[in-house]
Amino acid sequence: MRIYNFEETLPQEKLDELYMKEAFSLAEQAFREDEVPIGAVIVAQNKIIGKGYNLTERLNDVTAHAEMQALTAAANFLGGKYLKDCTLYVTVEPCVMCAGASYWTQVSRIVYGAVDEKRGYTVVAPNILHPKTQIIGGVLEEQCGALMKTFFRSKR
Ligand SMILES: [Zn+2]
């Protein structure tokens, strides 16, 4: 009997939305824990192999961004440091640190939600990604951005 994988039949655009929703639910978890609400998942062959959300407050660690957690988890899962056939989904454009970390993993694709006009890597170092990394922005942009706005408004 053939095991039918529904997800394989979905167009990439739909898959990207689906996984961004997963990342978004992690961002909501961060929000509930009073962390800057950013979530990330890493997908290989239609499976989530790493996930994370921002934990800089809880861990007292400025490097504890969602992407860093997810990259580490995915490398642990695969037992190797390279993520060549993986996609990183993150609700907000990566900062220069996370974009730099993604360079070392050689991740195939990065898909992000909202732009970060102040701290996004494109503002600081637009050429920092690995030349083989494909980048796509604006997936579920509105809801990802709205969660950030709500969070920072509550901080004022
Ligand atoms: Zn970052």
What does this entry show, briefly?
The protein is α/β, with parallel strands linked by helices and 156 residues long. The chain has helices at 12-32, 66-78, 96-105, 121-124, 141-155, and strands spanning 39-44, 47-53, 86-92, 109-114, 134-136.
> Judging by the overall fold, what is the CATH architecture?
3-Layer(aba) Sandwich
What quaternary form is this? single chain
Question: Could you name the CATH topology?
Answer: Cytidine Deaminase, domain 2
CATH superfamily: Cytidine Deaminase, domain 2
* Total number of distinct structural domains: 1
| Residue runs with pLDDT of under 50 for 5 or more positions | none
Q: What is the number of strand segments?
A: 5
Number of helical regions: 5
Termini separation comes to 58 Å
| CATH class wording | Alpha Beta
Largest sheet: number of strands, sense, barrel closure: 5 strands, mixed
